[in-house]
Amino acid sequence: WDLQVDSIIIPDSLQCLINSQNEDGSFVEIARVYHTDLTGGISLTQYVPMTAYVLLTFAECNLTSSDQESATRAGQYLANALSEGLESNYHLAITTYALCKNGQKVAAALGRDEIISRLQNGAGGKFLQWKSLYSR
């Protein structure tokens, strides 16, 4: 795919995201989510998935130094969520990925080996997907 995006759209879109950030660093979906599979099959009353998606978006864009503060706050929110414990393997995977993609240390209650072990065990040790705790 060769997708061309007008260069003015990206900074405006980033600013829209930054303006919607909560005080605690999290992001919440402001519209109805029709495909809850994208959130790990749960309601977005838990802000972890959306915050991780936005942090991944920030990682793909060239943030200005003033915009970087928003990414730092989102990363801190996710790091706190990780250290408090994430029940869902989906949340664990997307959070860990977003933090690593942004060059942030995943220094939390769970170490690297424990995260990998939990994800492998949750996937049955041989699969690349996990069964959601919230499956229909």
Overall description:
The chain has 136 residues and is mainly α. The protein is 50% helix and 0% strand. Helix 4 (89-101) packs across helix 5. The radius of gyration is 16 Å and the shape is globular. It starts with 8 loop residues before the first helix and ends in a 14-residue tail after the last helix. The model has no long low-confidence stretch (mean pLDDT 77).
Summary?
The chain is mainly α and 136 residues long. 50% of the residues lie in helices and 0% in strands. Helix 2 (48-60) packs antiparallel against helix 3 and helix 4 (89-101) crosses helix 5.
Number of helices: 5
Instruction: Spell the H/E element sequence.
Output: HHHHH
SS content category? mainly alpha
Mean pLDDT score, rounded? Answer: 77
Main sheet, how many strands, which sense, barrel? none
Task: Kindly state the percentage of residues in helix.
Answer: 40-55%
The total count of strands amounts to 0
What is the terminal-to-terminal distance? 34 Å
For the structure shown, list the relevant keywords.
single chain, 136 residues, mainly alpha, 50% helix
Please describe the topology of this protein.
Elements: H1 9-19, H2 48-60, H3 65-84, H4 89-101, H5 112-122
Helix pairs in contact: 2-3, 2-4, 3-4, 4-5
